[in-house]
Amino acid sequence: MQPLRHLVPAWLVLLVALVVGSSAQAQELPDFRSLVEQAAPGVVNISTTRVVPSRYQQFYGPGEELPELLRRFFGDQIPLPPGQGRERGQERHSLGSGFIIDADGYVLTNAHVVEGADEILVRLNDRRELPAEVVGVDSQTDVALLKVEAEGLPTLALGDSDGLQVGEWVAAIGSPFGFDHSVTAGIVSAINRTLPRDAYVPFIQTDVAINPGNSGGPLFNLAGEVVGINSQIFTRSGGFMGLSFAIPINVAMDIADQLRADGHVSRGWLGVVIQPVSRDLAESFGLDTPHGALVADLDPEGPARRDGIQAGDVIVAVDGEEVERSSHLPRLIGRVSPGNEVTLTVMRDGAERRLEVTVGAWPDAETDVAAGKSAGGARLGLMVGELSEGERERLGIEAGVRVRQVEPGGAAYEAGIRGGDIIVSVDHRPIASSDDLVAAVADQSGERALPVRLYREGRSLYVALRLEPR
């Protein structure tokens, strides 16, 4: 008698194996139902209203005929120069997402969701709509903390974003295009991403579908814990293209705690102008591989110069943590509280040295327009110092401010402005002080590039400065 296995056709054995294998694989896929049921009540929709002033005069009264030439260009309203006629406001509305981190009504979202808003409404999962006040905003990390008057609100559990691994499943809940509590899922594509205009955030890259309206919403791990705030997407169409970026929750909560306690964020400051280390530069400085941040210049009053850092040093580590790229240095120093000491590992003259540096604080808003508040919300990303009369005479210029530090990724950096440059004019307005610089950009909408005249190495040149839209 033949064994039973010889009586079963080979194709049937293969079919059973495929079905069993498929079932096993299906069982390994995550089920997000319990996560959504648990987390959805803590996710909110945020709607904002902003009144944008526009200057018009109703030139003709009811029943009066407007000439065809004027109607073709202006409709029934004639724009007038500032200071003339009647100001009228246009309301602009936007949508975003957020989540509750405290039962007493504290809500976390993106700074760009609420920037410039005159009215903010938070809609809860139970359909209640509550007006919200801004506790604080940090444009550098795109984090905002809001407060609504309510108690006993459902909160979300917070995870540890430092423990995230590439390939891990994650999910997002938000309001893309206004569709409340939409759920999307994917995996972590990369960690510690540095984006051009965000030097202080080690972004989490995912392939979770994120669209306009998702901004400020939570990113969850499979345990239902918030590990990030969905902040940006890479797109050429305006919609999702497979690349999404979230702010790690550990970074966001550090910012939120400072905003809640002080209303603002304090960051460490070295006072150095840095540049990337190319392969040729790495060889010339005695480095095996291109890494670290090359110190191109120093603020004469900064903590780095005071504590022994020199131009030409390559900073390769901060408190033992490697500086892989020059863009990593602002992030590592920025998270250090001013007044604390750090150990900088530098390469100098082919030898490695360790220097103790007491980190300073970014100078106040009068001379530091990088914070954005003093510049009407536009992130210039630079620090300037005023010129003495002797310096102006020596350079042969009547006005100007010297650029002490440029933040990598900021608007000034993208325009090509570098440390040591002298800003002579912005939009054809002479700049004789930091106050002049603040005033020159405070009323700019960001809709067009501004011509900036610089004085660099004995010659004059122009660059185009494009501010972030207000």
UniProtKB/TrEMBL annotation:
<protein>
    <recommendedName>
        <fullName>Probable periplasmic serine endoprotease DegP-like</fullName>
        <ecNumber>3.4.21.107</ecNumber>
    </recommendedName>
</protein>
<keyword id="KW-0732">Signal</keyword>
<dbReference type="InterPro" id="IPR001940">
    <property type="entry name" value="Peptidase_S1C"/>
</dbReference>
<keyword id="KW-0574">Periplasm</keyword>
<dbReference type="InterPro" id="IPR011782">
    <property type="entry name" value="Pept_S1C_Do"/>
</dbReference>
<keyword id="KW-0645">Protease</keyword>
<feature type="signal peptide">
    <location>
        <begin position="1"/>
        <end position="26"/>
    </location>
</feature>
<comment type="similarity">
    <text>Belongs to the peptidase S1C family.</text>
</comment>
<feature type="binding site">
    <location>
        <begin position="213"/>
        <end position="215"/>
    </location>
    <ligand>
        <name>substrate</name>
    </ligand>
</feature>
<keyword id="KW-0720">Serine protease</keyword>
<dbReference type="InterPro" id="IPR009003">
    <property type="entry name" value="Peptidase_S1_PA"/>
</dbReference>
<feature type="active site" description="Charge relay system">
    <location>
        <position position="215"/>
    </location>
</feature>
<dbReference type="InterPro" id="IPR036034">
    <property type="entry name" value="PDZ_sf"/>
</dbReference>
<feature type="active site" description="Charge relay system">
    <location>
        <position position="112"/>
    </location>
</feature>
<dbReference type="Pfam" id="PF13180">
    <property type="entry name" value="PDZ_2"/>
</dbReference>
<comment type="function">
    <text>Might be efficient in the degradation of transiently denatured and unfolded proteins which accumulate in the periplasm following stress conditions.</text>
</comment>
<feature type="binding site">
    <location>
        <position position="142"/>
    </location>
    <ligand>
        <name>substrate</name>
    </ligand>
</feature>
<dbReference type="GO" id="GO:0006508">
    <property type="term" value="P:proteolysis"/>
</dbReference>
<feature type="domain" description="PDZ">
    <location>
        <begin position="266"/>
        <end position="350"/>
    </location>
</feature>
<keyword id="KW-0378">Hydrolase</keyword>
<keyword id="KW-0677">Repeat</keyword>
<dbReference type="InterPro" id="IPR001478">
    <property type="entry name" value="PDZ"/>
</dbReference>
<dbReference type="GO" id="GO:0008236">
    <property type="term" value="F:serine-type peptidase activity"/>
</dbReference>
<dbReference type="Pfam" id="PF13365">
    <property type="entry name" value="Trypsin_2"/>
</dbReference>
<feature type="domain" description="PDZ">
    <location>
        <begin position="368"/>
        <end position="456"/>
    </location>
</feature>
<keyword id="KW-0346">Stress response</keyword>
<feature type="active site" description="Charge relay system">
    <location>
        <position position="142"/>
    </location>
</feature>
<dbReference type="GO" id="GO:0042597">
    <property type="term" value="C:periplasmic space"/>
</dbReference>
<feature type="binding site">
    <location>
        <position position="112"/>
    </location>
    <ligand>
        <name>substrate</name>
    </ligand>
</feature>
